[in-house]
Fold:
Amino acid sequence: MNQAEKARGFAAMHRPGNPIVLYNIWDVGSARAVARAGARAIATNCWALANAHGVKDAADVPFYASLHNLKRIVHAVDLPVTHDFCTGASENLVELADNFDAIVAAGAVGVNICDSGLGVAHDMAAQGERIATLRQRAGAMRVPVFINIRTRLFFDHQPAEVHASLLNMALERAHAYAAAGADGFFVPGLLDHDVIERLCAQSPLPVNVMQPGEFADIGRLACLGVSRIGFGPAPFIAAMAGLTEKARRVLDQVEAPAKAAQV
Structure:
C-alpha cells in the first residue's frame, strides 16, 4: 500500500458512531508498543515529544529533530501515521509549506495543526489561509493528507462551565476551516457530553475529542457522534509514572539491605 492509499484509508477511519481511536505516541518504542496492541493507526503527540526531549514546550523542539523522529516512526510501523504538526514550526506561509512538504515526504498521512501558535492566536481568515496552503501542497504532492485542525477554544476559556456558551463560536470556526480545506476538527479540553453531541450534530467536519486519562468510554463517545478519539499526553504521563514506580520498587530493594546493615 502506497502513501496515498494509506492516507485515503486513514481518512475513511473517521466515522461518526465508529471512531478511530488513537493512543498517542512519541518515539519508535512507543509506536511499536501501540502497534502491537492492535492499533489501526499511529498518532504522535507534540507535548509528549517535547517532554521526551527534555523540554516543556513543543516549540522548543527543533523542527529537524521532530522530523527525524517522525521518519524513524514511519519506517518502524506498517500503519498510517499522523503527525502532531503543532504550530507548523513557522508563522511564515512559505516556511510552513516547506515544513509540511518535509512532513509528507517523511511518510505522514495526516497532520494536526493548531489555530494558535508561537504565541500568536490566528483569526479565522489567517488560519484559513494556512489551511489552504497545506491543502494546496498536499494536492501538489498527490497525497490526500488528513488535515486535522486543533482549536484551543476550549483550553483557553476555562472553567468548563462556560463551554456550552462557546458552541456557536466553535461551529463558526469549523465551517471556516472546512471551507479552507480542513478534514477534521479537534476540540481538546471539551469533555461535556451534551456539548460534544451538539457539536458533532452540527459540525461540517468530523469531530475529534481528547480524553485526559488512560481510559475512555469509547462506546458512549461513539454514540455522541464522535469520529476520532485521541489521548494526547496521557499515554506518556502514564508510561513515565509506571517507570518511576517500577524503578522505585527495585531501588527500594537495594536500599533496604543497606539500611539493615547500618542498624
In short: The chain is about 50% helix and 15% strand. Strands lie at 20-22, 42-43, 81-86, 110-114, 116-117, 120-121, 146-150, 184-186, 207-210, 228-230. The chain has one domain: 3-262.
